[in-house]
Design brief:
Layout lengths: L7 H4 L6 H9 L2 H15 L14 H21 L13 H8 L4 H16 L2 H12 L5 E4 L15 E5 L4 E5 L7 E2 L10 E10 L2 E11 L12 E5 L15 E5 L2 E4 L8 E3 L5 E3 L9 H31 L18 H36 L6 H29 L11 H8 L9 H19 L15 H6 L13 H23 L5 H7 L1 H16 L2 H10 L1 H6 L5 H18 L3 H6 L5 H4 L10 H9 L13 H17 L1
Parallel strand pairs: 1-5, 2-5
Antiparallel strand pairs: 2-3, 3-9, 4-8, 5-6, 7-8, 10-11
Bound molecules: ligand LT2ZWINM and flavin-adenine dinucleotide.
Protein name: Acyl-coenzyme A oxidase
Cofactor: FAD
Pfam families: ACOX (PF01756), ACOX_C_alpha1 (PF22924), Acyl-CoA_ox_N (PF14749)
Length: 647
């Protein structure tokens, strides 16, 4: 019934202050109030309706996205939201709060602006950022090509310096050098940061970033030498098809020398290449920035799915009725809890590790300003590893939440299919997850190899300093509740990660060619990298569910024995019982509006069945009782079969 809270009985079970937890989840009271204000404004603004997307064709869907993005920008200005977030918070993520679907603004604010901020000189920032901030130009991040994405050093686009005209000539020498995938490129962006091989006097200096105008600011037509378009439909119906991922080729396009991003390296008027004594990897800085944002994003995406699945699991009843009484809520089944509650814990764990990663990123950014590069390897390993870990867990978690909702989870009106289709490319973009884990493995193996040189490991690898102790470690857990002690859990995870890493390093040492060994042992190295990244994220409930899931590692590395493993599982069940009365309150703390969730199963009021039934009739297929095509194709067949039967 309208207006009745069918989940009130669940909310009354909460054993904590939900309003306080809302502040914890948002990060601060100010952030809570601002996000609460925006989400309610968006929910009440008809321009931001989301329930029609499934029925729109690609062109209508895209046009609607442009309309939303423009309206969102106008609202950000009208509400004077600019600058209200922390200084580090570019406009992107305010707009994301309004538009809530992939759009060109993600790349303008999320990559084009950060690339200029991170790799542009002060003069270049003074020239280009005001244009970008006022959206007088719209930018994208054009790095990936048809032939290369993971291997950035394999990019083929060239930027050849012409000393006669003081210009770079940007060119696509091969089909595989076509820029391919950049979001916002296909139909909207006027400019791009283009990554190309810097060529001076025949010498190749590797990949650098260049600001290139793509389209006229008058008629939006591609400039001479530019061929540009959309790469076509992607996975899912609406999903990421609201984004114009594009293809771009250059036919000897000239740009002024001062449009090479020159904070890291410079080219003088005479054509001399100057590489200031900074790591060349700073050219990758934008990717590091977005990877840390993606970890925060993972907690948002996973919490949306968990919110839907938790509320629906409390509403859904199946079996268990005695003497005509109510059937059992599926959230009371231990199997449902063992699948759902670790995801609920993961959403919180990723939220908090995302805050820590933002601190790490901010710290390394400040250090770079002081030419202190000491924590750059740690920042790279942590952003790469946590981006990989959290996006894989979130993509798998959204799919698990769909399954936790049974058949109704497969309906678009559940919100889960769309959420999955929009989210899954996160395992690929900003770095394929396996490629990134191999980067972490390189960092770990290097750390182990340097232990003998007296190089004290710091940061997230500091536990490696206690290697001897960890290699002798065996858990002294005697009873289930011992697993509730944080240090007991932490030591088990440290020992597992250390032993898996040392085992890889020892096996690598058997190869005369280290690179050959690395390739041969890549699968083991990835597992060691995952163990290290999980150690970073570990928190009680999240940790024990991980320990149970990866019990084989813990037993095979000798950290714990089967009995201790079963005690951990027993403690896990006890924790599920403690979470159970608080489950609905824990997802209420995300403070998502029904509009933002876009899910009938996840409605705040739990009024699922009447709304599911009501929604079904809105489908265009129900516009007519007899569907188009029936009389044309099926009825003649039926009649013929009936005639045959009478003969
Ligand atoms: C790293 C590679 C794989 C290899 O690079 P290479 O140059 O070949 O180097 P190596 O030989 O491997 O290593 C040499 C040394 O360099 C070190 N290194 C490598 N990378 C880095 C780095 N980034 N920083 C520092 N150091 C680095 C390495 O460790 C070695 O050191 P050593 O010699 O051993 O000491 C590289 O090729 C690579 O990175 N490949 C991946 C390519 C990639 O990631 N492409 C991405 C393209 S852009 C893209 O995909 C965009 C997608 C759109 C995403 C849209 C997102 C929207 C926003 C989402 C979030 C919004 C949420 C908002 C939430 C909120 O409200 O806040
Ligand atoms: C939705 C979406 C949006 C995107 N937006 C942008 C954008 O805005 N700008 C941009 O520049 N790019 C963008 N990209 C491109 C994206 O960055 C690349 O697709 C990504 O970096 C993966 O590279 P790839 O496609 O070359 O994969 P590949 O590297 O070809 O991966 C294919 C397989 O090879 C494996 N593999 C590759 N190398 C190794 C190795 N050394 N060892 C072991 N296995 C390996 C991978 O694990 C994977 O299984 C986007 C992509 C998507 C899907």
């Amino acid at each position: 019934m309208e207006g009745v809270d069918h989940l009130a009985f669940e909310r009354n079970k909460a054993q904590f202050d939900v309003d306080e937890m809302k502040i914890v989840w948002a990060g601060s009271r100010e952030d809570f109030e601002l996000s609460d204000r925006i989400s309610r404004l968006v929910a009440s603004d008809p321009v931001f309706r989301k329930d029609d997307r499934a029925a729109l064709g690609r062109k209508e869907l895209f046009k609607n996205t442009l309309r939303k993005a423009a309206h969102a920008w106008k609202r950000v200005i009208e509400l004077r939201l600019s600058g209200e977030f922390s200084a580090l918070e570019p406009e992107a993520y305010k707009l994301r709060a309004f538009v809530d679907q992939p759009a060109f603004t993600d790349l303008h604010w999320g990559m084009f602006v950060p690339a200029i901020q991170g790799q542009g000189t002060d003069e270049q920032q003074q020239k280009w950022l005001p244009l970008a901030y006022r959206m007088q130009i719209i930018g994208c991040y054009a790095q990936t090509e048809l032939g290369h994405g993971s291997n950035v050093q394999g990019l083929e686009t060239t930027a050849t310096f012409d000393p006669k005209t003081d210009e770079f000539v940007i060119h696509s020498p091969t089909l595989t050098s076509s820029k391919w995938w950049p979001g916002g490129l296909g139909k909207v962006s006027t400019h791009a940061v283009v990554y190309a091989r810097l060529i001076i006097d025949g010498q190749d200096y590797g990949v650098h970033g260049f600001i290139v105008q793509l389209r006229s600011l008058d008629d939006h037509l591609p400039l001479p030498g530019i061929t540009i378009g959309d790469i076509g439909m992607k996975f899912g119906n609406a999903a990421y098809n609201t984004m114009d991922n594009g293809v771009l080729t250059f036919d000897h396009v000239r740009i002024p020398r001062n449009q090479m991003l020159m904070r890291v390296s410079q080219v003088t008027r005479e054509g001399k290449y100057v590489h200031s004594n900074v790591p060349r990897q700073l050219v990758y800085g934008t990717m590091v920035y977005v990877r840390q944002k993606i970890v925060a994003d993972a907690s948002v995406a996973l919490s949306r799915a968990v919110c839907i699945a938790t509320r629906y699991s409390a509403v859904r009843r199946q079996f268990g009725s005695h003497n005509g009484g109510l059937e059992t809520q599926v959230i009371d089944y231990k199997t449902q809890q063992s699948r759902l509650f670790p995801l609920l814990a993961s959403a919180y764990a990723f939220r908090f590790v995302g805050e820590w990663l933002l601190w790490l990123y901010t710290d390394v950014t400040e250090r770079l300003k002081a030419k202190d590069f000491s924590t750059l390897p740690e920042a790279h390993a942590c952003t790469a590893g946590l981006k990989s870990l959290t996006t894989t867990a979130t993509a798998d978690g959204i799919e698990e939440c769909r399954k936790l909702c049974g058949g109704h989870g497969y309906l678009c009106s559940s919100g889960l299919p769309e959420l999955f289709a929009v989210y899954v490319p996160a395992c690929t973009y900003e770095g394929d997850n396996i490629v990134l884990l191999l980067q972490v493995a390189r960092h770990l193996v290097k750390t182990v190899s340097q232990l003998s040189t007296g190089n004290k490991p710091v940061g997230t690898t500091a536990y490696m300093a206690r290697l001897e102790q960890l290699l002798q470690y065996h858990s002294d857990v005697k009873k289930a509740e011992d697993w509730l002690k944080p240090n007991v859990v932490l030591e088990a995870f440290e020992a597992r990660a250390a032993r898996m890493c040392v085992a890889c390093a020892q096996n690598l040492s058997k190869f005369s060619n280290p690179e050959e060994g690395f390739q041969e042992l890549a699968a083991d190295l990835v597992e060691a990298a995952v163990a290290h990244c999980q150690l970073i994220v570990v928190s009680n409930v999240y940790a024990l569910s991980l320990l149970h899931k990866h019990l084989g590692d813990f037993i095979s590395t000798g950290c714990i024995d089967p009995k201790q493993g079963s005690l951990a599982n027993e403690q896990l069940r006890n924790l599920y019982s403690q979470v159970r009365p608080n489950a609905v309150a824990l997802v209420d703390a995300y403070n998502y509006t029904d509009h933002y969730l876009g899910s009938i199963l996840g409605r705040y009021d739990g009024n699922v069945y009447p709304k599911l039934y009501e929604e079904a009739w809105k489908d265009p297929l129900n516009d007519s009782i007899v569907p188009d095509g029936f009389k044309e194709y099926i009825q003649p067949l039926l009649k013929q079969q009936l005639r045959n039967a009478r003969l």
